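S., here's the first fold you wanted:
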Amino acid sequence: MKIGVLVVAYNAEQHLAQTLDRIPTDFIDQITAVHVCDDASQDDTYEVGVTYGDSGSANAATLPLAITRRPVNLGYGGNQKAGYRWAIESGLDIVVMLHGDGQYAPEFLPEIVQPLLRGEADAVFGSRMMEPGQALDGGMPRYKYYGNRILTTYQNALAGTDFTEWHSGYRAYSVAAMANIPFADNSDGFDFDTEIIVQLVESGARIAELPIPTYYGDEICHVNGIKYGWDVTKLVTRYRMHKMGFGSGELTFASQPYEIKASVDSSHGRLLSWMSHRPPSRVLDLGCSDGALGQRLRSLGHYVTGVDVERATGVEDRLDVFVQHDLDTGLPDSIAKQYDVVLCADVIEHVRDPAALLSAARNRIGPDGSLLASVPNFGHWYPRTRVGLGLFDYDRRGILDATHVRFFTRRSFEQLIARSGLTVARRDATGLPLEVADRGSDQPHDCSDGVADQPRVSGKLGVVRAVDRSLVKLRPQLFGYQFLYELVPGAPPSS
C-alpha cells in the first residue's frame, strides 16, 4: 500500500529537521512520499526543509521528501485540506498527519498505520489519554489536560462515541475514507480536526485509537484555547442537534433514506396503529423510501406495493412489490388500478403538485377503501416562532425539512383535500416528537408490540409530553406537530 506522510508546519524551523530525523529509518522504505507543507511561515521553515537533503543526517538521503510553501497562510485546517487533496490526487492509500514541531512522535509511524494496513480501521487516532497519567508526565500543562478531558467527555456524550481523546493531532487516515467525506467544506481553523471526526462518525467509518507519548517542549502553541474550546463545543452541539433534526446538517450527508418515525406518538406510529385494526389489505405506499414502514405493514398481514423516486438499498426485500418512479410525474401505469389503502405518509409535502397526486391517488382507491395521509403542520408554534424571529431556515428533519417543497396548515390542507375530490373520514394530530432526544444515541428502540416503538420519554420530558398532549387536544392548529387523515372518495371536484 502507498503510504504518505503529511507534515503540517508553521514557524517550525527549530524543530522540522529533528522531526524528520526521528522518522524510523527502517520504516522509510514503506513510505511513498513525505510532503512538508509550510503554511507561509514567518521564519525559515521552508529553507530548513529545502536544505534538509544536504544535512547529512541518517534520513536525509533516503527520505522521499517534497517541500511546499503556501504563498498565503491557509490556517491549520486549510493547510490540511490542501494536503489531503494531494494525498487523493497522488493515488495514496494511507496518509498520516505529522506536526512539524515534533510534538507528536514520528517514532510511532509504523504503529499508527498498522490497523489501516490490516484493514481493521479507516482512521487511527493517536491518543495521549489512553494511559493514565502519561499526558501529565509528558509535560502537558494541567489546564490543557483537564480542558481536554472535559471537552472529550462532552463530545463523546453528544456524538455517541467513546474516544479517549478528541484533540490529538496525530492521525492516520485511509485516503478512500477521506475522499468519502466533504472535508473541503470544513473550517480553516483548529476545529477542523473535530469536524473530521464528526464526518467520519457520520459516514460510518471505523476509527481506532492508539496510545502515544506526550512531548511538550519549547514549541510555540498557536491555538487560542478559549476560542478553540468554544468552537468545538458549538460544533459537536450543532452536530447532535442535526442528528435530532434541527439545523441544516451541513456536516452530514443528505443521501440517507427518509427515516421511519414509528414511536406511538409519531405520524408513522399512529398510521401503523390505524392499520393494525384493518383486515389484511392491499396497500399502495407512495413515497416508501427504504421500505421500513412497508415492512412493518407486511408484518401486520398487509400486501404492500411501494413507489419511490430512489431505489434504496434493500427496499425490494422489505416490500412485496417496489416500483421506482417520480411521483411528480403522476402514478406509474405498472401498478394495480385499485387498492384497499393508499398511503401517503409524509410525502405530500415533497411533491410539486400535491393536488394532482391526491387526485391520482383517489382514483386508485377500491370499494370501501381509503387514503391515509400525514403532513407536517406549518401552523405549529415552532415554525411560527422561527418565522416571527426572522430565523426562517431549513432543518435536516421535521416541519422545516430541507426537502419539503410545500407547506400546509390544517385549513390549507383540508382545502386541498376538498379540491382533490376527497372527504375527511377521520383526523388526528401528533404532538412534539420528543423521541428526537434519543437520536444520535446508541439506545435501542422498543417495538415489543410489533407495531410502533414504545416511547422512552420519562422524567421531566414525560411531564412535557403530558402537557404537550393536552395542548394538542385543546388547540391542534397551534400545537399539532403533524396532522393525520383518513380520506375517502367524495364528490369529484367542480370544474
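And the second, which I think is the more interesting of the pair:
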Amino acid sequence: MNFVGNRKKVLNLFGGVGLALTTAALSGCSINPATGEQSFTGFMSPADEKRIGAQEHPKILKQFSGAYKDPVITAYVNNIGNKLAQKSEMPNIGWTFTVLNSDQINAFALPGGYVYVTRGLMALAGNEAELAGVMAHEIGHVTARHTAQRYGGSILTGVGSLAAGILLGGGAGDLANVLSHAALQSYSRNQEFEADSLGVRYLSRGNYTTKAMASFLSKLRRHSQLQAKLRGKNEQSVDQVSMLSTHPRTLERVQRAIQRAAGSKSGTFTGPVEYLEKLHGLMFGDDPVQGFIRGTAFIHPKMRFRFDVPDGFRLFNSPSAVVARGPAGSIIQFDTARKPYNGRLTAYIQNVWMRKLRMSGLETITVNGRPGATGSARLRRNGKAIDLRFVATRGQGERIYRLLFLTPSHLTNKLSLGLRQTTFSLRDISEAEAARYKPQRLAVKPVKASDTVASFANRMPFKDFREERFRVLNGLDPQDGLRTGQLVKTVVE
C-alpha cells in the first residue's frame, strides 16, 4: 500500500469534509425572535431541543427526588409559568413547569420549555414576583435558545475532530453526545445576562415588578452567608467568588439588566399575601425519603436506621451522602454501597471500597448485632498528615452501610472516642420509632402586637442561629422589626 499517496487523498478528503461542515454550519445561523440577534445554532432544530428536554426530564426528576406532590403548589407554579411563557416570543412550544422535591435552593431550564424550581427556593422567596423573576430568567434561557447556541459552538470548535470521526466511520454518536451535553452545560456570562434581560422583559409584560429579581438575589446572598456560618466559614466568603470565576457578581448583573430594560415599564404586582398563603404547610428541609437531621442525629424513617455524631459536628444531608463537619476540617461521611456484596467485609474495604489505598489495622467488628469491618490509612495533603478510618456494616436487605472518618492526625486521638461512639450508635429503629419523626413544615402566621423576632425565632425547632434563620427566611435585615398584622414564615414540626 502506498502510504504517502493515500495520505494525500485522506488529507484532501479531510479538507473537503471540513469545508462541507463549515458551509453547512454557516447555514445554521438564524435570527432569534427573542433577542433579535443572529446566532449560530448548528443543526439543532426546535424539535431537537424538545426531544433533548424530554429525554433529560426523567433524569432530573430522579436526581432531585422527584416532583413535589402538592396539587395546590403545582397548579400555582404552573399558572405563573404559563402566564410568563405566554408573554414570551415562544408561547406555543408546550411548556412544562415542575416543582422539585428538594430543599436545595435551585432553578434551571432544559431546552424545549422544561423549567424547574425547587421547594427550597420557594421557601426562601417572599412573594410571587420574586418566584416569577426566577422563572422568567429560566424562560429567557429557553427562548434565547442558549442550549442550541452552545451546541453550535461545539460544532464550530470541533469541526476537525468531527470530520475525523466521519472519516473513521464514527461521528454520528459524537454528534448525539454533543447535543445532549450542550443541554446541561453552564451558561456563559453573556448568556446569563441575556436571560436576565429577557426575564425583566417578561416580568414587565406580566405586570410584575422588575425589582423582584434583585430583591430575591439579595435574600439568596444572606442565605449563603448563613450557610457559610453553619459550616464554620467566614460569612463574607460568599462574595469572594461568583458562580463562575469569570462572571460578574450575580446581583450586579441583574441590576444592570434592569437598567438596560429601563425602557420597559415595570409592572406593579408583587403578591406577598397570595404567595405566603400558598406556602403554608410547604415541606421544609428533608423529606422522609431522604432522612432527617435532628440536632446531632440522622434518622432515616423509611430505611429505619439512625446514628449520632459527636457534639461539635454539624450534619448536612444530600441525595448521595450524609456529611458531618467538625473541628479543624474533620469530617464524618455516611453513605450506602451502590452494589450488593456478599463476601467478607474486610475484603470489601480493601478490594472494593478503598482498593487504591494501603490499609492497616483491618479487622472484623460487630455493630449492634450486625457484622462489620474496619480499617485505617494515613495520607498527606498539603504537607499535613490526615488519618482515615473506614467502617462497613451489613444493613437491611443487601445494603452495606459505610462510615468514613477523616481527621487531622494531631486531632485523631482527641476525637477517637466520639468517633467510636458514632460507629456504635448506628442502629435499626422500630416502625413505631420511625413513625414519631415527621417532616418540618412552613407555617405562615400573622404578627400579633406582643410578637417579636425573638419570640418567633425561639419557637423554631433549631438548636442554634434561630434568629438569623428566621430573618433569612423572611428577608429581614438585622435592624428590621415586625409590624402587627404582617405575615411571616416560621418552621414547625
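Why I say that: The longest strand covers residues 370-381. Residues 124 and 473 are 6 Å apart (CA to CA).

Talk tomorrow,
H.
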